[in-house]
């Protein structure tokens, strides 16, 4: 029996964007647990930390002093993963020892001057400014000749190894298209070619099962869903109601609503996990390498919360690391129901 409602406890579900199977094994959440737990703690942070290299007026370890900024602020990462001017030599002929330059730009995005803020706690004016910073940075970086993709992301929480708790995100503007973006691009153009030009994400959003069982929030311009083949227990995506390739294509009204929608979702996570919730957030904009298949891309924003519940982290151990088939211990329909109830409580 292959029940789309997810009533079975064991299913493989196809993740169409990544072109891989996800195992939904709802019984594993009830296993006896004697491993590590993450107790909810409320860290009291100062409004300004003179030892924090992201706070206004602080001199960073590389010697640059931050301006006395207010609100959203961006600067080049002092210790970048990618080099703006890497050696141009490469060798891709030898399959055993191929190499190429790691060219790109790494940027740090501060959401607020206040060390004790989070995106969930910002005023409407500040959250809108933070999201506008995404767009401004994307437009400027994607215009560079040597940039092929702009990945905007946030790593939040000590649970995922973040060493600085100042509210911030990052950008990697790469001189190549990343593996995940290659998969997503191939998946979307393959779907369009097989379905009379239809857009994969728009078709996913419009499907009856998503609208009935996986929808968390629907507003004027965006919907929040739990993906059918979610890899994380409370993974959600924000999908636009029209197929835009990147946030550069979003109107001012769409950007404003995206900011508020984004904030509502991170606040739901805070309520669900009873803390300032850890999270990995990814903005999946189309690559900017002028490839013809980018025309089939639809922007979406993905939340990957590492917590399975308020005390347990999701670890990728032997089977998942070795197989690349992620096991989700919670049925996506059940996760959507929990998050939808939190959304209803907001009204």
Give a short overview.
The chain has 347 residues and is of the alpha+beta class. The chain has one domain: 2-Layer Sandwich (HIT family, subunit A), CATH 3.30.428. It is built from 7 helices and 12 strands.
Could you say what the CATH topology is called? HIT family, subunit A
Task: Supply the number of helical segments.
Answer: 7
Task: Walk across the major sheet and give the strand order.
Answer: 3-4-6-5-10-11-9-8-7
Shape: globular
Tell me about the biggest sheet?
Answer: 9 strands, antiparallel
| CATH class assignment | Alpha Beta
Number of domains: 1
Average pLDDT metric: 92
Radius of gyration: 21 Å
Unreliable spans are 1-6
- Report how far apart the termini are: 38 Å
Describe this entry's structure for a reader.
- The chain has 347 residues and is an alpha+beta fold.
- The chain has one domain: 2-Layer Sandwich (HIT family, subunit A).
- Helices cover 27% and strands 18% of the residues.
- The chain contains 7 helices and 12 strands.
- The longest helix is centred in the last third of the chain and has 22 residues.
Task: Provide keyphrases for this structure.
alpha+beta, three-stranded mixed β-sheet, 347 residues, disordered N terminus, nine-stranded antiparallel β-sheet, HIT family, subunit A, globular
Task: Write the SSE topology.
Layout: E1 10-15, E2 20-25, E3 73-76, E4 104-110, H1 124-142, E5 149-156, E6 168-174, H2 179-194, H3 200-206, H4 208-214, E7 215-218, E8 222-225, E9 236-240, H5 252-273, E10 279-284, E11 300-303, H6 318-323, E12 327-328, H7 332-346
Parallel strand pairs: 2-12
Antiparallel strand pairs: 1-2, 3-4, 4-6, 5-6, 5-10, 7-8, 8-9, 9-11, 10-11
